[in-house]
Specification:
heterodimer, A: Alpha-Beta Plaits, Calcium-transporting ATPase, cytoplasmic transduction domain A, six-stranded antiparallel β-sheet, 30 helices, 51% helix, B: alpha/beta, 10 strands, 18% helix
């Protein structure tokens, strides 16, 4: 027996009795042990033996009760969308082929010079009417079907323009065919223009076909991200390994992953080790070694070993789900640059219709003979050339491709506005610990002053530190705990040897107090009486009026090496110092250099004293350093740089420096995609690679360049070609725009905007291209 | 004579287009609590809705219009861009935290709707 639980949606319920009917019907299925239906959420949860019960059986049980179950709902809706899109494209293609074929025949029989070679039957107006009518009202029905309901809302769009333009051309031609003598009487040669109507419809439909195909490419990133999700998980239950759908994995499940398999959900390794390819999430091509206790991320691929992990996050909580949600949200947001296009497009179509009417009047009154024909053709040209779509597509398509491109490389952008502002950034402030450095400091030196004992210094310091959660404190406690043990920690050999002889035991501490940004204090009972101890930086020593005196040189020496020195004092006596150092990240220098090349000033901010800070800054190539900044002052420092009229980005871990990230124009978190970091930041770099900061700026610059080019093209196209279609060049150059050419220009303009956005996909974010599945 | 008729008709036509499209009165918003069906056909009906702040409202978009123009709905203030399959109900849940007027539109920003959030 293989018991599983499944939850799925049910549609069509109205009341509590529906719930009972469905529950009873589901329970009747052989193998179902439990069935609960919730009227409010419209969901059923069923426990059953998967050896006996299939999805089809559940479906028919619900259907027999008179309702509809959506067991594979998500898959269905995605497949459905794709199927619908394909059907639409197929239908569009058919209409294009028919209308262009019929249109070509009409054009052959009706277009001056071409008609000389055509069979006489095609020159017959009635035959032309016969060929043009299905194009106008069958192939072109898509335009009418969209324009008529819009008119009911007193709204006009692209379709309205096409409908008016082609109806005018077709209507006039039909009139000429039926009543040639009437037209002749007003002094105009009775010549129909069916070719104009049919070819315009065919070409615009063709444009729409290509546009729909290209547009599908803009949302590819999301589809690929969704596709990364594993379908099944091999869960260890009752010492047996069973494959179950991913939706049935629960928190706490132990999951076995073999080499080459995809990790189904997020979790922590409990057995075994392996090398894991996380490139699809972080963009980082090098596989990462993971062992017992390390976290693994769903959708990444196990390269070598076999291991078991415990599921800690499932469903919408997994990192992949969070990334998908974030990218979807970014693609749904609006960039400020779009405002102008929004404003223009809301007035655009009515203005074009008014211009078309004015064109008719001017040409009819002032144009050369045959004035009526000139008036009609130029009016149609104005209606057809105008392309509001290009303006509407210019920004969102580029944002969609840009945010998708970022996600491919582990750059998660919260909204379009952040992506837009990032290209204007002039200064980037880096938090030191955990951003420029690895954030895993270790003890390098323990010094006892005035013939004191080093292990005593360590013992007092570690006793105070065990209450603190600061990374430096944790390093000291870890160091103290490792003394006397055979530790694999890379410690100084001499200290370890010494530690082996002296086991460090920690004291009980009373009246513990942490002075933010300065250090710690507390009372330790020494020989029956409490003694106050202080452990912290120079600022703390200054507060308690302790002069470093002759030890200043020793401390400075350590600081010049980039080490953070914490001083231990008791009442008014200096006891010793402990130096802690953090390693600079491998890519830090390169990342900073890349930013400098982009003309951006890097700044480092830290709570460390100036000397330590400068030593680290020199290593990474930063010259401007904001040192001795208390955590709550970081926000104010960001403000100060903003006051220099600079657009400022702040890079931090997203947890300790949330206010500074929020204050910056762009807050960039170097996180692992935790909720807190994502919430605090405008942009999250899940790969923690400092080169990604420059990549983000480059992505922003490139996306904005594309948007500006798109908008310039979309606006420029309309601003230049609408007057040309109206006949602005006729008085000087005798140039007029044939409505058929107008339709070609119109169709290519929106395709070119979408294609230009798609070109962003080819843009290389890093000098060295990272491998990515997205 | 013909010229005069054409000119006058043209002027009337331009005034009509201006009045018809650009002077349309905004429809009174429909007060919604909990859930509302919004029909997508040549625009959004109801075009304007008012919903309460801090409460989750379900907007059930049903696209009856086969035009590809309306196949996406974008609610930028809520960071939502959703594909609307033809003739199918798509439920978008929003929980506004601020009062005010929030516009939404189709993917190409040609058709508009409005959500008014009240206390």
């Amino acid at each position: 027996m293989n018991k599983i639980k499944k939850t799925f949606s049910i549609k069509g319920m109205h009341c509590a009795s529906c719930v009972l009917i469905i529950e009873q019907s589901l329970k009747k299925v052989d193998g179902v042990s439990e069935a609960n239906v919730n009227l409010v959420t419209e969901k059923a949860t069923v426990a059953y033996d998967s050896d006996k019960v299939t999805d089809d059986k559940l479906n028919s049980a619900v259907a027999n009760a008179g309702y509809k179950a959506f067991i594979k709902e998500e898959l269905q809706s995605e497949d459905k969308e794709r199927a619908e899109k394909q059907k639409e494209l197929k239908d569009l293609k058919f209409r294009v082929v028919i209308s262009l074929t019929l249109g070509a025949l009409v054009l052959w029989g009706g277009f001056p010079t071409l008609m000389d070679t055509s069979p006489s039957i095609l020159k017959n107006f009635w035959i032309q009417l016969l060929l043009a009518t299905p194009v106008q009202f069958w192939a072109g029905w898509v335009f009418y079907r969209a324009a008529i309901p819009a008119l009911r809302h007193r709204t006009a769009n692209m379709d309205t323009l096409v409908v008016i333009g082609t109806t005018v051309a077709y209507g006039y031609s039909a009139f000429v065919t039926a009543f040639p003598q009437v037209v002749q009487r007003i002094g105009t040669e009775p010549m129909p223009y069916f070719d104009v109507a049919t070819i315009i419809i065919g070409l615009i439909l063709l444009g729409r076909y290509f546009e729909a195909k290209a547009k599908a490419g803009t949302s590819e990133a999301i589809k690929k991200l969704i596709g990364l999700q594993a379908k099944t998980a091999r869960v260890v239950r009752d010492n047996k390994e069973i494959d179950i759908p991913i939706s049935e994995v629960v928190i706490g499940d132990l999951i076995r992953v073999r080499p080459g398999e995809k990790i189904p959900v997020d979790g922590m390794i409990t057995e075994g080790d392996s090398s894991i390819d996380e490139s699809m999430i972080t963009g980082e091509s090098m596989p990462v070694d993971k062992k017992n206790g390390d976290t693994v991320v769903g959708a990444t691929i196990n390269k070598s070993g076999s291991f078991v992990f415990e599921a800690t996050k499932i469903g919408q909580e997994t990192m992949l789900a969070q990334i998908i949600k974030l990218v979807q949200e970014a693609q749904g947001s609006k960039a400020p640059i779009q405002r102008l296009a929004d404003l223009v497009s809301s007035y655009f179509v009515p203005i074009v219709i008014m211009l078309a009417i004015a064109t008719f009047v001017v040409w009819y009154n002032l144009g050369p003979e045959p004035a009526l024909l000139y008036a009609i053709l130029n009016t149609v040209a104005v209606l057809i050339i105008a392309c509001p779509c290009a303006m509407g597509l210019a920004t969102p398509t580029a944002i969609m491709v840009g945010t998708g491109k970022g996600a491919e490389h582990g750059i998660l952008i919260k909204d379009a506005e952040s992506l837009e502002i990032a290209h204007k950034v002039k200064t980037i402030i880096f938090d030191k610990t955990g951003t420029l450095t690895k954030g895993e400091p270790s003890v390098t030196d323990v010094i006892a002053f005035d013939n004191g004992k080093e292990n005593e210094v360590l013992r007092y310091a570690a006793s105070l530190e065990k209450f603190s959660e600061h990374p430096v404190a944790m390093a000291i406690v870890a160091f103290a705990a490792s003394l006397g043990k055979s530790s694999s920690h890379p410690l100084d050999k001499a200290i370890r040897e010494k530690a082996e002889t002296e086991k460090t035991e920690l004291f009980a501490v009373d009246k513990f107090k942490a002075n933010t940004g300065k250090g710690l204090e507390g009372e330790i009972i020494i020989v029956g009486s409490p003694k106050k101890f202080y452990f912290g930086n120079r600022a703390l020593m200054k507060d308690i009026s302790i002069d470093l005196g002759a030890h200043e040189i020793e401390i400075e020496k350590l600081e010049n090496e980039g080490k953070t020195v914490m001083i231990l004092a008791s009442d008014s006596d200096l006891l010793g110092a402990i130096a802690v150092a953090d390693t600079v990240k491998e890519n830090a220098r390169q990342g900073i250099e890349e930013l400098k090349k982009l003309g951006i000033e890097p700044v480092m901010i830290t709570g460390d004293n100036f000397k330590t800070a400068m030593a680290i800054a020199n290593k990474v190539g930063i010259t401007r350093v904001l040192a001795e900044v208390l955590p709550d002052q970081k926000e104010a420092e960001v403000k100060k740089i903003q006051a220099e009229n600079k657009i400022v980005a702040m890079v931090g871990d997203g947890i300790n420096d949330a206010p500074a990230l929020a204050q910056a124009d762009v807050g960039i978190a170097m996180g692992t995609g935790t909720d807190v970091a994502i919430e605090a930041a405008d942009i999250t770099l899940i790969n923690k690679d400092l080169k990604s900061v420059a990549a983000t700026i480059r992505l922003s610059k490139m996306t904005m360049k594309t948007i500006k080019l798109n908008l310039f093209w979309a606006f420029g196209y309309n601003i230049i070609l609408i007057p040309v279609a109206m006949g602005a060049l006729y008085p000087s150059f005798h140039i007029l725009l044939n409505p058929i050419f107008a339709s070609i220009a119109m169709a290519t303009s929106s395709i070119s905007v979408v294609s230009s956005s798609l070109l962003l996909k080819r843009f290389r974010l890093n000098g060295t291209q990272t491998k990515s599945l997205v | 004579m013909n010229e005069t008729i054409v000119t006058i008709s043209g002027i009337i036509g331009i005034i009509f287009v201006f009045w018809f499209f650009l002077m349309k009165k905004e429809k009174k918003e429909v007060a919604v609590i909990g859930s509302v069906d919004i029909i997508v056909e040549g625009g959004y009906s109801p075009e304007a809705i008012s919903i309460p702040k801090n409460k989750t409202t379900k907007l059930n978009f049903i696209r009856k219009d086969s035009s590809s123009c309306l196949e996406e709905v974008v609610l930028p203030d809520f960071k939502i861009r959703k594909h609307l399959p033809f003739n199918e109900k798509v439920v978008i849940e929003i929980t506004p935290k601020q009062t005010g007027e929030f516009k939404y539109s189709c993917g190409m920003n040609m058709f508009h709707g409005k959500i008014i959030v009240t206390d």
